[in-house]
């Protein structure tokens, strides 16, 4: 094996001034520095690689969160540090949660922190090159390169090899079972079985036997011994889907199994030790079900050792083109038909939809488009039948939104006024955060930014 390419050594500073802050110590000159303004830097990231990136705030026209989000999208895996001597403690925490490697307020240890960020990134590269084959396999089951999916991959990579119980939450259709499969595949139990149980799909009278097994004669119809799902998952992973629907009396028995790591088959006094990893999933609000007396609080804390929240599709719209292309390829291969292509307009339509059914709905919509697309090789917006979601419905019960006077009105101008009002309201509600405003309106951030620039240009020309 040849020497490992240690990658780029240059650090990109995105700042208003082409120099280090005044209170910073002498630069140790162990890496090169390139200073750029925000717009130039974002365009540069498409063709250049950096060992680390520093955002020196404030920057006119950009909030720290907005710029951090944009840079993360264009520089996947590159550590990003933020320099802001006036940042509040709460904002520093929020920036760290948003993906910043470190938030710097003084120059005393700034270069040391940048060096550490570069070294940490290089260690990750070495680990990746060395090849974690299990990780490479499971990452292909969770498709997406958005910040939300990168964070999800990071958490799974941290906990996959541990025995800790994981509780996966998220809306229907977000891929909770795929996350459970990734946890299994990425850990040291991947050679063992992955056993799944839907706690809502079986009647209560059968669920206990399904989970714990039974011996012959335990109840009417028990003609032979049967091992339960816990025993079937020995040395592997047990996935308990729809855990919020588990009957309350079975919750106590499940809690005991999780605590003692042993089961008793129905009708037997013998205890059987089980060595398994338990992953549970739900789309219910379990704290609310606890308040309603429908879920045990002690079981909730036993399950929620490592919480893993699956993001909705509308929260990671940047992944939609990748997901749609994946589903087109998957379906065309399964149907043994020539690969179809998506037009840019079709992708824009998919990206602007709110997807109440999340990834599962997207796959179904793509499958329908392919089925109804006949022999055409290209799919257009007209091929995708998207039912109106909560954001798309307009309720006319309060009367017309715009009154048309007898003398008529300027149609284009009226639409422009309405559109501008909608954009301004969304930006006010999100404190000027264009990413959040775009998500609120079901738009891509680039689309919203273009519309804002258009209105600003129109206002300047008046």
Model description:
The structure is a single chain. This protein has 462 residues and is of the alpha/beta class. The protein folds into 4 domains: 11-129, Rossmann fold; 138-309, P-loop containing nucleotide triphosphate hydrolases (Rossmann fold, 3-Layer(aba) Sandwich), CATH 3.40.50.300; 313-383, Helicase, Ruva Protein, domain 3; 408-461, Arc Repressor Mutant, subunit A (Orthogonal Bundle). Helix content is 44%, strand content 13%. The protein has helices at 38-44, 64-74, 89-97, 110-130, 133-139, 147-159, 176-185, 204-212, 229-232, 248-260, 286-291, 297-303, 320-335, 344-352, 358-372, 411-429, 434-441, 445-461; strands spanning 11-14, 33-36, 52-56, 80-83, 102-104, 166-169, 194-198, 213-214, 226-227, 237-241, 262-264, 271-273, 277-282, 306-309, 341-342, 378-379. Strand 11 and strand 12 (271-273) form a beta hairpin. Helix 5 (133-139) packs antiparallel against helix 7, helix 13 packs across helix 15 (358-372) and helix 16 packs across helix 17. Residues 1-5, 127-135 and 391-399 have low confidence and may be disordered.
CATH architecture of the largest domain: 3-Layer(aba) Sandwich
Based on secondary structure, the structural category is alpha/beta
Distance between the termini: 66 Å
Helix content: 40-55%
**Rg on CA atoms, Å:** 27 Å
Give the strand tally: 16
Mean pLDDT: 81
Highest CATH level, the class of the largest domain: Alpha Beta
Tell me the CATH topology of the largest domain. Answer: Rossmann fold
CATH superfamily of the largest domain: P-loop containing nucleotide triphosphate hydrolases
The outline comes out as globular
Number of helices: 18
How many domains, as an integer? Answer: 4
Beta-strand portion reads 5-15%
Report the biggest beta sheet as strand number plus sense, adding barrel if it closes. 5 strands, parallel
Strand order of the largest sheet: 2-1-3-4-5
Uncertain stretches of 5 or more adjacent residues: 1-5, 127-135, 391-399
